[in-house]
Amino acid sequence: MKTYLIPLGLLAATAALAQHEHHAPPAVSAAAPAATQAARPTARLWTIQPLLLPGRAARGERASALLRPQGIAAQTVTVFAAEGPAERLQVEYPLAPEGARIAPATPKVGNYHWVVAREESAEAVRVASTAWYFGNPGDSPKELLKLPKHELEIVPDPLPREHGSYRESEKWRFLVRFNGQPLAGQPVTLETEFGSRSTVLTDAAGIATVLFPRDFKPAEKKAGGGEHEGHSPRRAAFVLSTTTEANGRRYLTAFNYTYGQDGDRNRSLGWGAAFGLIGMLAATPLLRRRKPTASGEHRDA
Questions:
Q1: Which of 154, 200, 156, 206 is nearest to 181 (CA)?
Q2: Which of 119, 167, 189, 128 minimizes the C-alpha distance to 265?
Q3: What are the pLDDT digits (tens) for 19-73?
Q4: Is 217 exposed, middle or buried (0-12, 13-18, 19+ CB in 10 A)?
Q5: I want to staple 55 with a disulfide (CB 3.0 to 4.6 A). Which of 66, 77, 198, 286 is the partner?
Q6: What is the dihedral sign for C-alpha 21, 26, 30, 35?
Q7: DSSP structure class, residue 230
Q8: Does the global pTM surpass 0.70?
Q9: Burial class (CB in 10 A: 0-12, 13-18, 19+), 49
């Protein structure tokens, strides 16, 4: 009887560990203050699409954020707010060499703000857009997202909730519109910083349903055996882009943000180990039941 108690104890411990790994709350939410939002700075060029990326913000800075355009020759960055004084609902910030330092509509207003950088010529209009979350409470961005802000747009439908995020293997909806009207049959391309690429068409209502790829690489190990990311949720950058032409002008728009690792990965690994132990336990009685004798015959153990 003691032979089975030890493996069964190991099995219970493994299953409990799997449950703990899956349900342990993340150290940083997807909608954390500005320093953890949007795509993290990277020297590697993984897309040619225009992006709005975070610059290096001072530690503990919550009242503002630094954004830097990439792949677009914009002169300013425009921030749209869901609430606040009328003169603060749409504010342009100049671009310095390190980027544009943006702020919420008022120091006490938070939640999502919509951010746009625009490059325009007689032949083309190029737009980079992202959402930025400030930590204080604020109005829902639902009505803000309904308002057209430039000609060709990709708009989340909806944005993730405060403690949610885009994740691997999940499907999310994005509205594509031109001059405020939905575009049907419009190709929308998804690119991630890990090299994944896919294209979907919008439906009759202008909605593109995007499946985020399961493309996170295993975390690198430290010399002591731990992971470089520690216990913080892992994030990677993505961009959605689309183009159209009208009246002899080419329009390109891009929306970039981050997505997270599939939360079921740890649970799957833990339960995989548990089922492996179950198989070992099932085989143990069969191996112990019969032993070979000196003559080569078998007898019961």
A1: 206
A2: 167
A3: 433 333 333 333 333 333 444 444 579 999 999 999 876 555 667 999 999 999 9
A4: exposed
A5: 66
A6: negative
A7: T
A8: yes
A9: buried
